[in-house]
Design a protein that fits this description.
alpha/beta; two-stranded antiparallel ribbon; 182 residues; single chain; 20% helix; 8-stranded mixed sheet
Length: 182
């Protein structure tokens, strides 16, 4: 079954970027234990918000070798983006259903990445199958929160996996505690 997975790092106080939108505060915590490439091998499609796409494009990291990229945006994408990158500005339920159908039988999942604003529509529609959150041992005090001050309200989650890395990061995987979920 193809899953919609949020895979993201946040500060202990809940921020995914500093007040300027930067993520350089993560640099001291990169280590082989994180195994991003292992994660990437499980992904068949990535969904990003426009801000995340634009930042990744500036760094030259906007094309995922693990599959195609869908950018949630109302603005046209630059003409020079590689094949496999598409813009999307519709109902996330339709997008999720289409991507799941396209990836059916591949053993690959969908990465819902980017910032809180791009994750919220999937959360509001109760489409997230797994939250994979790396809690970084730093307090930013302000910045871009993982969960903007809107959302669907209370949703119970169940811890499915957790581990402490040698650099102080805590990785926690949560799944919704809905009926019919493992």
């Amino acid at each position: 079954m193809t899953l919609l997975r949020v895979y993201i790092a946040m500060s202990l106080d809940g921020y995914i970027a500093d007040s300027a939108g930067g993520v350089d505060w993560l640099n001291p915590y990169f280590c082989p234990e994180i195994d991003f490439m292992g994660f990437a091998k499980t992904i068949g499609a990535t969904v990003w918000g426009r801000k995340t796409f634009d930042q990744a494009r500036q760094r030259g990291e906007y094309h995922q070798e693990s599959g195609r990229v869908v950018v949630m945006t109302h603005r046209p994408l630059p003409q020079d983006v590689p094949a496999g990158i598409e813009a999307f500005a519709g109902d996330v339920r339709e997008l999720a259903a289409r991507l799941k159908q396209e990836l059916a039988g591949t053993g690959k999942d969908i990465w819902i990445g980017g910032g809180g604003e791009s994750i919220v529509p999937f959360h509001e529609a109760r489409l997230i199958d797994r939250w994979e959150i790396s809690i970084i041992p730093v307090l930013l005090g302000e910045g871009l929160p993982l969960f903007p001050k809107r959302g669907p309200g209370v949703e119970g989650l169940t811890v499915k996996r957790h581990r402490a890395l040698s650099n102080g990061i805590i990785e926690v995987h949560y799944e919704p505690a809905r009926a019919g979920r493992g």
